[in-house]
Amino acid sequence: MNGGLYFISTRKRMNKKEEKNQSGFTLLEILLAVFILSIVVSTIYAAYSGTFSIVESTTKEAEVYAMARIAMERIVEDMESIYVPVSATEKENGEGYYGFIATEGQVGYKTFDNLEFTSTAHLSFSEESKGDTITKIQYYVKEGDSNEVFDLCRSDQPDPDTGLESETISGPVLCEGLSDVEFTYYDAKGTSHDRWDSGSEEFGSKVPAMVTVSLSFLNLSDPEKPYMFTTGVAIPAGIGR
User: Fold this and answer.
1) Would you list the domain boundaries of the chain?
2) For residue 32, which phi and psi values (nearest 5 degrees)?
3) What pLDDT is recorded for position 9?
4) pTM
């Protein structure tokens, strides 16, 4: 009899233990699991966000480098091909003159140089237009999509009838997103000048022997450190004249 009661008591304890083992998670266990899961998700999100940020920054830098390279190559080719007649600066028909003019213009809250010169680097987009004709090339800056950035534009007018110092003809954007554009002009002796005018007595119908160009692009991730590109252009027409 006592054996039977012991068996029944033992059976009841086992049943209670099984019921306890089959019960759900406690609130503390659930909170701990949620906490661990949140840490894992946060870590993964931070890793992916950092990766996407790096990819976006790298893509932007690649675009800026491409624009700067194209702009610099175009400026170098245009200036290396500056044309000035050996005999005189006056045109045969007496209108205007060939040469190089750099004046200052106000654009928004900043001042930029406006360049105007005659060159043989005409960009021809049709079979009818000759690629080696004399053309008037103008470089000027206009406001961009916002007040913080500017666009560098290039105008190309083949066979100009009005000479230099004429109205600027609207041209396509060469590069955009600029925070600054600077030109410095050097004579054959190596003296630097902020301005240049081939028609003035100071420069005596000469063009610069060299021009340095500096392009600064706005860096959205760090505005205090813009992307800067600088190059120098030796102008054959201005050397030894």
Assistant:
1) 59-238
2) -65, -40
3) 54
4) 0.71
